[in-house]
Amino acid sequence: MVYDVIVIGAGPAGMTAALYASRSNLKVLLLERGIPGGQMNNTSEIENYPGFPAILGPELAMKMDEGVMKFGTEKAYGTVQSLEDKGATKLVHCETESYETHAIVIATGCDHAKLGVAGESEYAGKGVSYCAVCDGPFFREKKLVVAGGGDSAIEEGIFLTRFADQVTVVHRRDTLRAQPLIQKRAFENPKMNFELENNIVKINGNGQVVTGVVLESTKDGSKREVACDGVFIYVGLIPLTEPFKSLGITDERGWIMTDDKMRTKVPGIYAIGDARAKGLRQVATAVGDGAVAGQQVYQYLTELAKA
Fold first, then answer.
1. Do 213 and 204 form a contact (C-beta atoms < 8 A)?
2. Which partner from 18, 56, 117, 305 sits 20 to 30 angstroms from 124, CA to CA?
């Protein structure tokens, strides 16, 4: 079977692209390696997506998934290993299956960067976490540390105060990078405090769970230990684009380069959402990318049929 388009990734960008393409009567396969929603499933509350004053990330993911199926999109599960460009057709190779298609939309998103410090991997799942929604309830009446100073770090830190007695934000700069409104909420939260101009250089534990972190001052290099029961890390993003680098469509950091029509330099291959090189990564921008790509695929296939 040859699909009109295969969408790789079922986050908000991928689901929107599949919706637009299937609504144009194209034969669409949506490839996903896990549950639909991508990073939305790790987001406590979304309050900047039009139409919802506030909505839980997993709930919005479920609503999007319901909508994407009604025009005939097919689903398959697997992790893409590589793409093969054959001109008018392309092959998508997964671990055990390969799929043939005329067009591809890459919507693989990104993952949380690691601190890369001693104790991080040792205590992953034992107090070290990258998802407040997933693990926050396990830390009721505990002391937590959040690494990072951007929107995600501060928003998730605020969310963690629903459970923890104390949340300490550690950030290497002297000011946070989060939006002013988010910062205001954090500074006004009595359960939150801040260790600015500090880096976490080690995560300590007793062999079973986290017991604290070692902070190093960015001003004078002094070190000290801060006791805590868990560490939540939000220090950046890494694009999940390794299978596509051989096509020459990524920049030096791995983000996929496109034009404003979501086209890569390989005809028939598009990239959208958090995997794309762009300035703002939000649910709203992902949905916009997906809508553009879905329409562009239809136009591409129309021209291909005329050739």
1. yes
2. 56
Across 259-273, average pLDDT: 97
Please determine, for residue 255, whether its predicted confidence score (pLDDT) is greater than 90: yes
Q: Identify the CATH class of 114-233.
A: alpha beta
pTM of the complete model beyond 0.70: yes
Rounded CA-CA distance 142/207 in Å is 18
What is the C-alpha separation between 167 and 190, in angstroms, rounded? 10
Q: What is the pLDDT of residue 41?
A: 85
Which comes out higher in pLDDT, residue 307 or 89? 89
Answer yes or no: are the C-beta atoms of 132 and 160 closer than 8 Å: yes
Tens of pLDDT along 149-188? 999 899 999 999 999 999 999 999 999 999 999 999 999 9
CB 231 within 8 A of CB 135: no
Q: Is the pLDDT of residue 200 over 90?
A: yes
Domain range list for the chain: 2-111+237-306, 114-233
Confidence of residue 211 (pLDDT cuts 50, 70, 90): very high
Q: Do domains 2-111+237-306 and 114-233 have the same CATH topology?
A: yes
SS3 302: helix
Q: Are 46 and 60 in contact (CB under 8 A)?
A: yes
For 2-111+237-306, CATH number out of 3.90.550.10, 3.50.50.60, 3.40.50.1820, 3.90.950.10 equals 3.50.50.60
Pairing of strands 98-106, 90-94: antiparallel
For residue 112, what are the CA distances in angstroms to 40, 48, 246, 265? Answer: 13, 21, 23, 27
Q: Report d(CA 239, CA 112) in Å as an integer.
A: 9
**Per-residue H/E/C for 226-294:** EECCEEEECCCEEECCHHHHHHCCECCCCCECCCCCCECCCCCEEECHHHECCCCCCHHHHHHHHHHHH
What's residue 71's pLDDT? 93
How far apart, in whole angstroms, are the C-alpha atoms of residue 164 and residue 176?
Answer: 21
